[in-house]
Amino acid sequence: MEPDFNEGTRCRNAVEVKLTEEFSRKHPVFPVSLVKAYFQEEEDKFPSRKKNPTPPEIVEVENCPSPVKKIIKARKAMLNGKDQRKYLVRFKNQTADTDKWVAEDAIPDGNLHLRRFRVSRRTEQSHQ
Q1: CA distance linking residue 90 with residue 99, whole number of Å
Q2: Where are the domains of the chain?
Q3: What's the topology of domain 58-127?
Q4: N or C: which end of the chain has fewer CB within 10 A?
């Protein structure tokens, strides 16, 4: 969205913005309290900022640091033109920064952990 403050200010409490085609069905007038000024990032001022955090690495069974504590997330990844499910696994006695994306067949005691993960996801969805 690109705000047009010259012509877009309806009153002191509302701003009309130019919406892209994808938002064309939305009403273009918003309260000023919801509008934030856009500032282009200046990489030279903030060199330590990362644009895209690196995803956790994918590990094989023999590289697992310790037994699995729980499965946190699931995603589909393309491998050799085929969909393959990967799971973000948290290991026992490890912190969240050691979480790894692991293929379904590479999870130690995978059936047990996958069953718990699916049940927890179903209960989360039913409570929403």
Answers
A1: 5
A2: 2-34, 58-127
A3: OB fold (Dihydrolipoamide Acetyltransferase, E2P) (2.40.50)
A4: C
